[in-house]
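#struct-help
A.M.: can someone run this one for me? Single chain, 140 residues.
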Amino acid sequence: MIMQVKLEDGAKIPEFAHATDAGMDLFCYEENTVLAGQAVMVRTGISVAIPEGYVGLIWDKSGMAVKRCLKVMAGVIDSGYRGEIQVIMTSLSNAPIFIEKGMKVAQMLIQKVEQPTIQVVYDLPEADRGDAGFGSTGEK
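D.P.: on it. Structure tokens below:
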């Protein structure tokens, strides 16, 4: 269960648009204008209590990404955080983008997390891939 609190009158509680959706929609609490190349904090006016052992991951809404060229950044909400959920958005457009109050700006997925034991070693075990990185598997 995710407990949610409205911090501001008029804030809209996150909701699943469809029963089969993985992410719940997050709504903008106040108007914003995002200038070309700018990053802004978009207020939602809500806070949540995510159960221990879970995390809230904030992701783009596909419609906002394709229609308005808005990208969500840095979206990890830890279970111990009780402050206002704010969405960091950046514009990939060349023109200012207006965000209306009440508009769906992002979606939050709740996922189980593990905290494995960390062990410092002198060497890592060998792997088929080795240290090959970006583009090492080809394009086709």
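A.M.: thanks! The mean pLDDT is 91.
D.P.: also worth noting: Residues 3-112 form a domain with the Deoxyuridine 5'-Triphosphate Nucleotidohydrolase; Chain A fold (CATH 2.70.40.10).
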